[in-house]
Every structure is written in structure tokens, then in C-alpha cells.
Amino acid sequence: MADPLFLDDSVHAFLFLYSIDSKASFKQAVNGIEMVRNRPALRHTPIVVAGNKVDLERKRTVTKLGTSSAAAQYGFTTFEISVALNHDVDDLLIGLLADIKEAYGSEGEKKRIVDFHEPSPRPCKKEGVQGEDDFSSAIRRYSQRKKRQVDNVETGNGKCSSLSPSSFFNKLRVWRRGSSPRIEQ
Predict the structure, then answer these.
(1) Could you list the residue ranges that cross the membrane (predicted)?
(2) Residue whose C-alpha is closest to residue 37's, from 28, 50, 49, 47
């Protein structure tokens, strides 16, 4: 992060991405967060940090505890995603939009100042604010749709619905029998 050109005062949020199998990438992200928090004009700008490559859990070097302690220290929202598997990428984008919406009103001006050393309180519902209700409804519908998709996969639709080792190996055996050429004598 030798080039701090990303520290533009007109941004609405920062998204830092690191790899869960690289401590160096996490340290770079934390250095960038420190740069943002040390700049007075950006001190209260929302920050979202995403750990990528959760599909490589066995190679993890950045611990969840380390990430959560940094989040408590610098006041940012964390997500763990896998771009390769498209796992929770939509949730990351919705979370980023929610943080921007929470920090800024619909007019685009700072709605409130957030001290990044304090946990962010969830906004209370206000009567007569149609835009916020629509946004909350959209997020709720999205979450319900994602839950239905997960439920459909778990109930079994021919895809790897049960991820127990025995069922996995049975499906593998069936697949190998069906696809391997048999030589009949």
C-alpha cells in the first residue's frame, strides 16, 4: 500500500479484500484500514473487509479470531467469501450497500457520525420513511430466497444434497460405474 491514491475524500465506503491463506494480504488490508482511520475526513467512512478463498479452509493462515479482534479495534464489518464458488458474494455486496445506506441518508450526505471504537448500533425503524422500509424489505426477500435455495439443495434434488462421506463415496462409485467404459469379452 505504498500508493495512497485510494484515500479520496469523496468515497462512500471502502472494501478491503484479503486471502484467508495469506497473512501478508491481511496485514496489507489492516495497513490500508489504518490509513483510512487516520485520515480525519475518512475516519467515519464505512469499511467492509472480506476474506476470500474460504473454499481453501485447510490452507487458512488468517484466523477468525484475528479478524474479529481487528474488526473490534478498527470498527469494520467482516465477511468471508469464495469468489471461485460464488459463495456469499451477494451477501457481501448487500452488506456493503447496507453500511453505506446506514452511514448516509438517501440524500447522499452523512447521516450520523459513528465512532469506530464503539460497536455500531443498528438503526431503529422510523415511521414514514418509505425508502428505508423498501431497502429492508428487499434485503429480507433476498435472505428468504437464499434460504429457500439452500433448503432445496439440502432436501435432495439429484445434486450432492447429502455431504456425508458415505453418501459421497456411494455417488462417486455410481458415477464411475456409469462413465467408465466396460470391455466385455
Answers:
(1) none
(2) 47
CATH architecture under which domain 1-119 falls: 3-Layer(aba) Sandwich (3.40)
Per domain, the residue ranges of the chain are 1-119, 131-179
Instruction: List Cβ neighbours of 75 (8 Å cut-off, separation of 6 or more).
Output: 37, 47, 114, 115, 116, 117, 118, 119, 120
d(CA 175, CA 91): 34
Please give the Cα distance from 5 to 48 (Å, whole number): 18
Question: Within 10 Å of residue 3's Cβ, how many Cβ atoms?
Answer: 6
pTM of the model: 0.59
| All residues at 6 or more sequence positions from 35 whose CB lies less than 8 Å from its CB, including other chains | 1, 4, 7
- Cell readout for 71 is 474488526
Tens of pLDDT along 72-123? 999 999 999 999 999 999 989 988 888 888 888 755 566 545 444 444 444 4
* Side-chain-side CA neighbours of residue 121 (13 Å): 7
Residue with cell 484467508: 20
